[in-house]
Design goal:
Length: 416
């Protein structure tokens, strides 16, 4: 087929995802808020990274285009404060684009350490002041609405009066009553909060809940004439909907979405930041954002917190781009033999490995064919003679697992 008659890339993939789309589903300029070093470290199975690791993670956040990072709860301990200060100083010294936020309860004693951080580091620190807003939380804490409002106003005032931007965070927003949220949101805005953070704290929400809550909040802000107030979405993954809900939240009007590396966080964790970015990239919404460092970002975080990445985890797992199936491998190899890297990276992959700093990996196993063996040998500079290919394939067919490199090389050495 000549170059002039070859099908275009658009003709090779019929994309049902694009049917009935009306323009961009998500506007330009959305912001990514990284919770790895705050909510991520609340996971019961992680360790608190060394400060050197935290600094390295900040640099990687900056490289993958994270807008802002929650670097911790400086009011929780002296060590937490010292780490937060060191991270702020690193951001200043390295001239990172990354913005800084810290979290705290709606009590003045949690907000004043953030004021000190900002003054000592010489940069703005965005205050994320959180309080439970759902009836189930109020019952457990023995709070009434007036008490919640009093705490909220006092905490917001401390931040605003000291010149810090304040985000009002209603924990468990997705199980809170609309009339309560209305009062709390109005109070927060009246006291100078610049953003509201809607939280699916226990992973309760479905995409319908995301839509309903955001439409309610946007209508409330419009009625108040407060359309300048920004909206965050902070979602957990207890139903396995954290990623989907994060994307829906952006579609329905949140301008800032929260996530953490590998989805680490309380219980089963948060929306996974790398998969939010991956999906928006594939939707064509992050045209200029280089995500080839996503793999390193995840690996560094995993090592720093003592986290095991599941072998089948999307993008980052060992098997994400690995195949030993004969039909799949043969198709990839045929595409590579054509010199068509675009085709080879998509023929059996919905995620192009090269876009994210990885590559297709063809192995040899009990479901492999001769093409797997030939490719494997050639990629290592070994001549794939017919007898050698047959011998390796026979070894693979007699095995119940994918052959390790040492096992293949045993056969190679046996054949000289």
């Amino acid at each position: 087929m000549s170059a002039s008659t070859a099908p275009s890339n658009d003709e090779l993939v019929y994309d049902w995802n694009e049917l009935a789309r009306k323009g961009r589903i998500i506007p330009r300029g959305v912001e990514f808020f990284d919770e790895t070093l705050r909510d991520g470290l609340q996971n019961p199975s992680v360790v608190d990274p060394k400060i050197e690791d935290k600094l390295r993670i900040l640099h990687l956040m900056d490289r993958i285009g994270i807008y802002e990072a929650d670097i911790g709860l400086p009011g929780s301990s002296q060590r937490a404060f010292d780490d937060c200060l060191r991270m702020c100083q690193e951001i200043v010294a390295s001239k990172l684009r990354l913005k800084v936020a810290c979290a705290g309860r709606t009590v003045p004693s949690d907000i004043t350490p953030m004021v000190e951080l900002s003054q000592r580091a010489g940069i703005p620190v965005e205050v994320y002041a959180f309080v439970g807003s759902s009836p189930i939380r109020a019952l457990a804490e023995e709070w009434d609405l007036e008490r919640i409002k009093k705490y909220s106003a006092e905490a917001i005032d401390v931040g605003v009066k000291n010149g810090l931007p304040v985000v009002y965070v209603t924990e468990d927003t997705t199980r809170s009553r609309p009339e309560v949220l209305s009062e709390l949101f109005k109070l927060a805005i009246d006291h100078g909060a610049s953003r509201l953070c809607l939280c699916d704290t226990v992973g309760h929400s479905t995409p319908d809940g995301v839509r309903n809550l955001l439409q309610f909040t946007k209508a409330l802000l419009a009625g108040m004439g407060a359309t300048h107030v920004g909206l965050d979405w902070h979602g957990h993954n207890d139903r396995g909907l954290g990623l989907v809900n994060a994307i829906y939240a952006l579609e329905w009007g949140a301008e800032r979405v929260h996530g953490s590396a590998l989805g680490i966080g309380e219980r089963v964790g948060n929306a996974p930041m790398e998969l939010i970015l991956l999906n928006l990239k594939l939707l064509g919404l992050l045209e200029d954002q280089d995500l080839t460092h996503l793999m390193e970002y995840c690996q560094v975080v995993a090592e720093a917190v003592g986290w095991h990445i599941p072998i089948n985890y999307p993008l980052v797992g060992q098997d994400a781009f690995r195949t030993a199936t004969g039909v799949h491998a043969a198709a990839i190899i045929k595409a590579q033999n054509k010199g068509d890297a675009w085709l080879a990276d998509r023929i059996y992959s919905g995620v192009p490995a090269g876009m994210f700093g990885r590559q297709q990996d063809i192995c040899i196993g009990f479901m492999s064919g001769a093409s797997n063996v030939t490719y494997w040998l050639k990629s290592r500079g070994i001549e794939p003679s017919e007898t050698l290919v047959r011998a390796i394939l026979a070894r693979a067919k007699d095995s119940a697992h994918i052959l390790a490199e040492t096992e293949v090389m045993e056969v190679v050495r046996a054949h000289g």
